[in-house]
Fold this sequence. Notes:
α5 (73-88) runs antiparallel to α12 and α8 packs parallel to α9. This protein starts with a helix and ends with a helix. α7 links the parallel β2 and β3. It contains 13 helices and 8 strands. By secondary structure, it is an alpha/beta fold. It has an 8-stranded mixed sheet, with helices on both faces. The chain has 2 domains: 3-90 and 297-302, SRP54, nucleotide-binding domain (Four Helix Bundle (Hemerythrin (Met), subunit A), Up-down Bundle); 101-291, P-loop containing nucleotide triphosphate hydrolases (Rossmann fold), CATH 3.40.50.300.
Amino acid sequence: MGIFSKISKGLQKTRLSMAGAIDNVLHGVNEITDEMFDDLEEILVMGDVGVTTATEIIDRLRAKVAKENLRNGKQVRVAIKEIVAELLDGGEQMEMITMPSIVLVIGVNGVGKTTTIGKMAAMYKAQGKKVILGAADTFRAAAIDQLQIWADRAGVDIVKHKEGADPAAVVFDTINAGKARNADIIIIDTAGRLHNKKNLMDELAKIYRVIDRELPWSDRESLLVLDATTGQNAVNQAREFKNVAEITGIVLTKLDGTARGGVVLAIKHDLNVPVKFVGVGEQMDDLQPFNPAAFAEGLFDVAEDPEEEE
């Protein structure tokens, strides 16, 4: 199954909810009215797109309708899809050219952080890259054990210390192991305890210092893992993390289990943080690199009405 098919399948609940409601508004429309724009904006807000982003989409839609002289609902739906793809475009590529490159993964318990790391490791290994994991979330013994399980599943190396160890020491040892074993990619699991922001900031700052000293020339990505099922709470969580940590991208998990996929738009537009990966299922290969065109297509790929095709 290709990326377009996987993302389309993962967006099924969101599509049925938000895009279905949009189709109901646009069905049979042969005259563009202010009421139609208001209805569309309300649907976007209710679909966890967020007020700011929904307003931006509708403003762009009004301009597009006027400029291109759009006259019916079918044309408007195509225009919305194009606008969504444009809003999401930019920054979604992982910037990892150096050998090794390093990926820091942050996220609170329960969002799918460890699973994401395991699937990411498997994906890069399947591409022929040598991957090594660092278990720097030493706050919970379970986090270390879970990462070991995923390392075994993915068939990659892991560096770990005991529970309560200094996370920066784990990062130091992982980097040295990565250098010695000619790793292409080092993926570090870090803690994400937002309830104590100062500890988190201090811990991450120490990790960044180790990386700056040991791999000053390496490409670095800092990914925040969020649970799509939490909707706007995920946006708020991203905002909080962005205030205390260097975030280069988002991994949005459990997209297939929610009708709140519109939150992708809020994260990208409101916070100006690109989405790098989306989780669209339970299988090892269900972590997909984010593709704006595929997302927009999957979000609005509602079957054409037979009457409209005639």
